[in-house]
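Data deposition worksheet. Section B asks for the primary sequence of the deposited chain exactly as it was used as input, without tags or linkers unless they were present during the calculation. Section C holds the resulting structure in token form. Section D is free text for depositor observations; keep each observation to a single sentence. Incomplete worksheets are returned to the depositor.
Section A, Depositor: J.P.
Section B:
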Amino acid sequence: MYAFVDRYRQEHGVEPICRFLQIAPSAYRRHAARRRDPSRLSARAQRDQELEPHIERGWRANLQVYGADKVWRQLQREGIAVARCTVERLTRRQGLRGVVRGKVVRTTIGDTRAPCPQDLVNRQFSAQRPNQLWVSDSTYVSTWQGWLYVAFVIDVFARRIVGWRVSSSTRTDLVLDALEQALYARQPERDGTLVCHSDRRSQYVSIRYTERLAEAGIEPLVGSKGIPATTPWPRRSTGCTRPS
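Section C:
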């Protein structure tokens, strides 16, 4: 916000801009005074200004692959006393990131040969009643024992997870078990008024999964390519909770 005031102060004046941004003019004037005279900065801010060049130098000197922990160890070897949390905070503020080791996990692997239902939802995730629109998706979680995969089914009207399963593999059984739990918990009518939306990964367009939807009287919908199955929900008092 202060940068915005700096940019337009000559054109509109400080106080009208501060009034529009709902900030105190005195706060901006203190900021401007500290920028003109660095000795007015707090001891922490002055220390940060001293450390930032050393942190960036250590990061660049090591081919820009060091993270906060290794940059901190490098500074310790150079005799620069600084806390690790301070290095982590300043690297984050400077936008310095190290190389992340580990296997890249892909959860969405589309099956181009399998027929896909049309995307009739078109990112309009809304429902007027329970058991009108379900959304199925899955993700992965890193644990001490390796990667675990979580599949879940959300009732769009209630913003509630009605079925979920955890597995060490991404086979079709994972998403099928989550669907089975949702069917058991909700007992939807078999009249075709419930639709289940998912992405194009192979598990959701597999024969076993689509057959189970048809058996339960659920119409399958598949999102367009590059569009995730789920979307962030607005905050509501119910929240997304685990089914009882």
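Section D:
Helices lie at 2-12, 14-21, 25-36, 43-61, 68-77, 84-94, 172-186, 207-215.
Residues 2-94 form one domain.
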